[in-house]
Queue: 2 jobs
Job 1
Amino acid sequence: MSTETRDKALQEAVGRSERAEDSLDLRQARLMQLTLDQEATLEEGDPLPPFWHYLYFNPQIRASELGADGHEKLGRFIPDFGLPRRMWAGGRVEIDKPLRLGEHVQKLSTIRSVEEKTGRSGRLCFVTVDHDFSVAGEHRLRETQNIVYRAAPDPDAPPPPGKPVPEDADFTREIHPDPVLLFRYSALIFYGHRIHYDADYTRGTEGYPGLVVHGPLTATLLIGLGLERLEGRALSAIKIRAMAPLFVTAPFTLEGRDSTEGAELWARRPDGTTAMTVRLHAAA
């Protein structure tokens, strides 16, 4: 495919949308509590904890429709960029009103932008997707999701330098990730990406030193810690930026500080650099 043809195909994808529906099953949310080593206390009608919508609405992909990495083959909704490596880069969640367990929810996903760039590691493609969630025609929340696609890694290329974390945390929590946590989370979100459970593939093909902690899982942990500081205040918005991967090979630390808007949090990698940042904005 020529560059001109590829560029045209990518731009034609902008505005493409798909719909999904799901019921916010209580059992699924309680299993998530257990996965996070919490008591299963949620009840029907309770607000779904922020960012737990990843438990639902997951595409029902047949085994033959998966790629070699266990992820859905490109081309159905997201175009095929010829770039095999997928990275979740974060985004933003704007909350009008929380979703509640037991509700039947409609989700509308729309590709808002597709942009190609060339970086130190070669060609990159940045995709922005809006996910709008509503109940009986009432809009509840929007997640703007940023995804990066890149070429297969060069095993001899040095890792890019990381950004040091702030040193003025008001609160911290150490996390000891393990393969069981990652496997259970993958199962709950019906996600087959092998970097989260297949160590041989992760090291030999993707070039990582060990199993990769899911970006949305790290975000969920950070948001949960921040909510403890808000003392029951509801959220109006969440801003997430994924900067570097975390692995099961070593513990990492969740850190944060109180802010006038709510809380600012980050995940500290073992080398002292930043894996992810999260900003929580409390509702007025």
Job 2
Amino acid sequence: MADDTEKLWWIDREGLQKLIDYLAKQGHDIVGPRIDQGAIVYDSIRRVDELPRGWTDDSQPGVYRLQPRSDQEHFGFNVGPHSWKKYLFPPLTEVMRSRRTSDGWTMQAPDVESPRYAFLGVRACELAAIAVQDQVFVNGQTQDPLYQLRRSQLFIIAVNCTQAAATCFCTSMGTGPECEKGFDLALTEIENGFLLAIGSEAGRKAADAIPKRIALSDESQSGQQRRHRAREQITRKLDTDGIRDRLLARLDHPHWDDVASRCLSCANCTLVCPTCFCHSVDEVHHLTDDEIVRNRRWDSCFNVDFSHVAGGSVRDTTRARYRQWLTHKLATWIDQFGTSGCVGCGRCIAWCPVGIDLTQEVATLCGGNAP
């Protein structure tokens, strides 16, 4: 495999379809980008024709819209409202079921048949986000068996960015735009097809099952130029030098009140974020009260009840909740998991209804001496 990982291959559109067919025969549910309700989302696909060919997206603070491209590229867009988190860490999961019997209550973990996913179109920032959630659910002090099972069966086809959005700042976070690790296969779309890189033994087996050839030098150069173009297009920046200490030194900064006056506490930023993992646990009683199902569901630190304890909420103001989110994401996350909780994808900027920009808020908070 070592020799294969150093080679760059070329496949055409039919080769990409063969790859999808091969993975489907291996029992994978192929999930990739497609258009639905005016956005590029992730959903099950079986044909290359289902990809958003000829479409791109315009992302600005508080703005997201699709636009037709002047060409017919399959991956000429950035990231939308979905992240791969919804498949590895689903929004609603049954974690336990209790039943009343003649001998009392019995508790049983659910019999889970985990789908074998193959993700198609994973960007570099999203590879980094999956690695962050791996650190939370697999490599931390406690492990999540449901996440572990889905993750262990995952096949990843990454796609290098060849253009950037105005909301991207992955270069500041060191997470992109080039895919460097964490994938089985990686694609770079060029004029006449796709460059293919192999990143794992499973990726090599998949590549061996499809028609391909060694990439020509001009094709390799075209891919390199396109990846470089995406990097040059990224103008949004976040100064991460000493960001943990700088943020924690400004917990009483007056700018928290300013951002709180704009924030709606709608939780959009946490729902679209590919790394946020806040959740709550609910117990649902059947009408006969003979069975209780315990469910885990996504929650958000922006919801006032999320920090509710006996006597009331710990963070009962928008100021407190926004400060908790930002300082956890960029500061105390490092203490917990040894990494930042932000990968620079820009989703929280685009999908904030009022256009609050994390990079601008940090620049304002940390732009001078701590008050």
